Amino acid sequence: MSFTAKNKAVLIRSGKILLFCAAILATTKLTLQFDALTSQPTAAFGFIIIVLLSAYFGDLIVAISTSLVATLCFDYFYLAPVGTFNVYAFPDWISLVAFLLATVIISRLTASAAESKTNATELNETVLQLEQFGEWLSSIPDDQLALPLIAKGVMDIFSLDFCSIYVHGEGKWKHSIGIAASPVFEEIERKLSLFDDHPKSLIELATENIPGVRYMPLAKGKIPPVVLVVKGHALPTNAIGAVARMISLRLGLAI
């Protein structure tokens, strides 16, 4: 059974939640086995460290899930009456609420910092890929410039699942695919062939094709329309626009 990128992300996130929640339970068991480690501050400190790790190596959902489990364990095992989720003493209520707020705030800040670092890394990688693609595209001799070659270059340089350039002419879409067909690509080709009789807008293309496929015009408002079609999560939409502009300039198309 094959998983989509979204299913894989959910599976990885679920695994991380289970891992860090198991770490909370293991820490609880450890602290309860040694009298010297059973104080509330020591247990809370251990839980906060695990929450920090969950936010750094996971995301906000992983961190919040870990934080809630840590709060429940802190209540059940360390606040009187021990062994219940009831809290009778007002100071214990303050401890519980403070612990929950601290873990949630720490989760949010740490997850944001980790996400910003990831975004910066991805942005730098995309900029380098755009520079590489621009140099490669400009190095192609005019007599060797062809749409299938460009499509394959886009797909290879940006590590896409699919890339093709579609030109509508003579009553049908002409496909300049950049890689040999596979079941996914054949599905894209099949659905595009359903409206070979006339060109459609990008909105119509987006609603009629399979999820995850993105479209960018190479010649806006021109006849015949020329459209860059890609599938893959490695390239942001604004970067696809930059790629389309470079291709349009190289081909001498109006943009």
Automatic annotation (TrEMBL):
GO CC entries: membrane
Superkingdom of source: Bacteria
Organism: Syntrophus gentianae
InterPro entries, sorted: KdpD_sf, KdpD_TM
Localization, UniProt: Membrane
Bilayer topology annotation: Multi-pass membrane protein
Matching Pfam families: DUF4118
Gene Ontology BP term (one): phosphorelay signal transduction system
Protein name stated in the entry: Sensor protein KdpD transmembrane domain-containing protein
Ranges that cross the membrane: 43-62, 93-111
Keywords: ATP-binding, Kinase, Membrane, Nucleotide-binding, Phosphoprotein, Transferase, Transmembrane, Transmembrane helix, Two-component regulatory system
Residue ranges annotated for the Sensor protein KdpD transmembrane domain, each copy included: 18-120
Gene Ontology MF annotations: ATP binding; kinase activity
Gene3D superfamilies per UniProt: Backbone structure of the membrane domain of e. Coli histidine kinase receptor kdpd
